[in-house]
């Protein structure tokens, strides 16, 4: 068994690798070589990456791709996408190309309010707590003036603080439920700093509140933290066109296509097993743009899936309709994104990604990202209701399988040609490689 290590965090990078090699790889030089060959030859750049997180021993590459032809609110964009899965970028590009000749995507930010909470316990008279809160509400806001001063100049800051009584859920449990505007920042650090100060002010004011008895003064702060559930930080995006402009083939008329498409979305509205996969497809597009622009994809994922469950069961984040012979496909999703803060101004590729998008503010990035999700979902449903998902997905995945078998350039060329007219399956790729090699 690997021994317990103490002080690992304090070892140099070289010593960390030495330890890993000794206890996990039997000092195999190949393991050390794999870790070190991903280092950047530019020492300054490598140091920057080392310092993004802790105990860094190497870099983990993901492709940095682009999807062109996105027409959004009349402007043309090339989207940066960072994702490991084949066919996602191709699918986004295909959807963008399709819709750019049909008016493009429309997108609109509905609201940008974020939430944070101070969770505390208070064992005493509720009316007294409510009265106490009304007397300190302004003091709470004033106590964070040093933190909010610059944010207010940008039009942000604390919007409101409410006292919420949750004691029917958990004995003596209350919250300061606070709302914020954070301008172009995602806002986690800003909100958390404000909340921790609210908690301190709450405690100190309780100590000097003469109406409280000694027990009531013993408010206990459980925790102060922003919420990644942001149902008031919402963006909406849509595409629409006459039904007659939708794809049509000898097997499927445009009208039949539209009805089948709507049925596929309806299934994701009522059937959670389908909804989760449907929304996973949406997140293929969203996460790729979120990662490329240096945003927190865990926060985005958690918030999106919570929103998908807001009506009591997990459902589709997109909707589709036909009205007056016009097909409309839309998405509504919470996206607490930032174009400042976090890694946005630190990671050279993130900076480049934001420049590629024309240096958007947070609202514009919300619109672009929602569109990436909608486009991805359109491409996936288009495949699902026509050819099936495997045809296109496996066409894109072919190169990965060929690389797994270390196919030569000539083998690749021959097999790409062969699979132009044959469906790609893992087993047939193996058979065809063996055929070429024997
Ligand atoms: C894969 C395609 C796009 C092929 O589609 P196709 O019609 O065979 O592509 P094409 O070769 O005719 O090219 C048409 C356009 O597609 C794009 N395109 C095409 N190939 C490339 C490429 N190599 N690199 C970059 N872009 C590409 C590109 O825009 C191109 O235009 P062009 O550049 O030639 O003017 C299509 O089959 C498709 O959209 N499939 C859906 C794929 C998908 O959704 N993948 C996600 C992974 S599966 C999953 O995770 C989620 C899912 C699907 O389960 C969700 C759900 O169930 O809802
Ligand atoms: N639960 C969660 O989601 C948590 C996330 N985080 C992390 O926090 C980071 C995001 O926090 P932030 O406070 O956004 O980042 P941050 O603290 O790095 O930077 C944001 C700061 O930039 C400044 N700023 C400059 N120009 C601005 C403008 N135009 N608009 C707004 N602010 C401007 C403000 O001082 C603002 O507070 C992410 O890295 C995230 O992963 C941290 C804790 C918890």
TrEMBL record:
Q: Which GO terms describe its biological process?
A: coenzyme A metabolic process
Q: Which domain of life is it from?
A: Bacteria
Write one Gene Ontology MF term: hydroxymethylglutaryl-CoA reductase (NADH) activity
Q: Does the keyword NAD apply?
A: yes
Reactions catalysed, semicolon-separated, are: (R)-mevalonate + 2 NAD(+) + CoA = (3S)-3-hydroxy-3-methylglutaryl-CoA + 2 NADH + 2 H(+)
- Reported EC number(s) for this entry are 1.1.1.88
Q: In which pathway does it act?
A: Metabolic intermediate metabolism; (R)-mevalonate degradation; (S)-3-hydroxy-3-methylglutaryl-CoA from (R)-mevalonate: step 1/1
Ranked from the top, the taxonomy reads: Bacteria, Pseudomonadati, Bacteroidota, Flavobacteriia, Flavobacteriales
Q: Which Pfam families match?
A: HMG-CoA_red
**Protein family membership:** Belongs to the HMG-CoA reductase family.
Keyword check for NAD: yes
Instruction: Please state what the protein is called.
Output: 3-hydroxy-3-methylglutaryl coenzyme A reductase
Q: InterPro entries, per this entry?
A: HMG_CoA_Rdtase, HMG_CoA_Rdtase_bac-typ, HMG_CoA_Rdtase_cat_sf, HMG_CoA_Rdtase_CS, HMG_CoA_Rdtase_NAD(P)-bd_sf, HMG_CoA_Rdtase_sub-bd_dom_sf
Instruction: For this UniProt record, give its keywords in alphabetical order, as a comma-separated list.
Output: NAD, Oxidoreductase
């Amino acid at each position: 068994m690997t021994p317990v290590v103490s002080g690992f965090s304090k070892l140099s990078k070289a010593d960390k690798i030495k330890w890993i090699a000794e206890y996990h790889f039997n000092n195999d030089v190949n393991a050390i070589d794999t870790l070190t060959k991903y280092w950047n030859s530019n020492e300054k750049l490598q140091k920057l990456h080392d310092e993004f997180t802790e105990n860094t021993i190497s870099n983990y590459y993901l492709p940095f791709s682009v999807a062109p032809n996105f027409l959004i609110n009349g402007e043309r964009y090339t989207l940066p996408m960072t994702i490991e899965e084949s066919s996602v970028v191709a699918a986004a590009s295909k959807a963008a190309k399709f819709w750019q000749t049909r008016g493009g995507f429309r997108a609109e930010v509905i609201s940008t309010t974020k939430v944070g909470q101070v969770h505390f316990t208070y064992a005493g008279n509720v009316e007294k707590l409510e009265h106490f809160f009304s007397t300190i509400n302004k003091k709470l806001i004033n106590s964070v003036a040093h933190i909010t001063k610059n944010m207010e100049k940008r039009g942000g800051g604390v919007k409101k603080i409410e006292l919420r009584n949750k004691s029917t859920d958990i004995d003596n449990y209350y919250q300061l439920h606070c709302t914020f505007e954070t301008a172009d920042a995602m806002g986690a650090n800003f909100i958390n700093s404000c909340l921790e100060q609210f908690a301190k002010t709450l405690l100190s004011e309780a100590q000097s509140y003469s109406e409280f008895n000694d027990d009531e003064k013993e408010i206990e702060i459980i925790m102060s933290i922003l919420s990644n559930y942001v149902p008031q930080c919402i963006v909406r995006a849509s595409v629409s066109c006459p039904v007659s402009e939708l794809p049509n083939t000898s097997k499927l008329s445009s009208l039949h296509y539209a009805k089948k498409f709507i049925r596929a979305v309806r299934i994701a509205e009522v059937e959670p097993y389908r909804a989760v996969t449907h929304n996973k497809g949406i997140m293929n597009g969203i996460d790729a743009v979120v990662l490329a622009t240096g945003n927190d994809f865990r926060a985005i994922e958690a918030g999106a899936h919570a929103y998908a469950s807001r009506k009591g069961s997990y459902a589709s984040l997109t909707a589709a309709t036909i009205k007056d012979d016009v097909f409309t496909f839309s998405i509504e999703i919470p996206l607490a994104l930032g174009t400042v803060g976090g890694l946005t101004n630190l990671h050279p590729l993130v900076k480049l990604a934001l420049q590629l998008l024309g240096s958007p503010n947070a609202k514009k990035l919300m619109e672009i990202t929602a569109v990436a999700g909608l486009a991805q979902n359109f491409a996936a449903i288009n495949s699902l209701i026509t050819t099936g998902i495997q045809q296109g997905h496996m066409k894109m995945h072919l190169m990965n399988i060929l690389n797994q078998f270390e196919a030569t350039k000539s083998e690749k060329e021959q097999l790409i040609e062969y699979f132009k007219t044959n469906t790609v399956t893992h087993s047939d790729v193996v058979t065809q490689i063996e055929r070429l090699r024997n």
